Amino acid sequence: MNIHHIAIWTFQLERLREFYIRYFNGTSNEKYINVQKGFESYFISFESGATLELMSRTDVQNVPIKENRLGLTHLAFSFENQEAVLSLTELLRAEGYHIVSEPRISGDGYFESVVLDPDGNRIECVYKKEQENTPVKNHVIETDRLILRPFTENDTEAVFNCCRNPNLGNNAGWKPHDTPEESLKILQTIFIPQKDTWAITRQEDQLLIGAIGILPDPKRENSNAGMIGYWLDEAQWGKGYMSEAVSAVLDYGFNKLGLTLISANCYPQNKRSQRVLEKMGFAYEGILHQPKQAMTAKYNDHQCYYLEKNNLK
Q1: How many domains does the chain have?
Q2: What is the DSSP letter of 89?
Q3: Same domain for 170 and 290
Q4: How many CB atoms within 10 Å of residue 28?
């Protein structure tokens, strides 16, 4: 015996249909209409498992959804790997959807994030490795002055000391860390489980001075495209460390991961990041207007760059 389908009432029938088709690869049947009852519905089918019935009727009550209530509380969609969870989460974030829970490894070993659909229904995006549920161990990269290595929980104090500085968060779009406990949570949920993300440390003293990583580009459907992101402790600005780290990660992305294009974006006021990208040969792609709400509730523009493998310096 299997669950055949799950049903949701909505006043936004077409919008919900588009949401589950676009972001979760659903397939919809033709709309069913019962004029006498004022009822309309779609069945959305997925690659496997139960179908989802989206229903609308004129007499349905608009009762607010509460997180902790009896009854159906969320839907969960499984993904082939944690990179797919991260990619969809960032795409939904960029397109204005509410991320209720950031990507993390749950207590029972699932890598998951939680987003809200247009009606506020909680959607879990989950991945669980069948045989081994340990965080991904990233490849260590060495340069002349740096070692790029995986993050650990022992980095909490160093990350807090760097990321409490508002000059980092204001330039990158995230809130300065208020406590070491906040830094630890971010390490546990973002930096440690995330593949191809490194702590930037100095060879001379192993001091952690920044972070760098490559993620799937949420604005491109090309599976061979990645997006690079980074931050550097303000005390280390102007010493060439970030250019050295970016150069090494670009080489890794193109020659180890097999990427054909790597993108990057930054705020228009972040001139230092722009100079790093231009020095590495990135081409200016244009301005993406108001893609994401910043901490001040203002929607900041992104200056977008890209670099193709055959243009790597």
Answers
A1: 2
A2: H
A3: yes
A4: 15
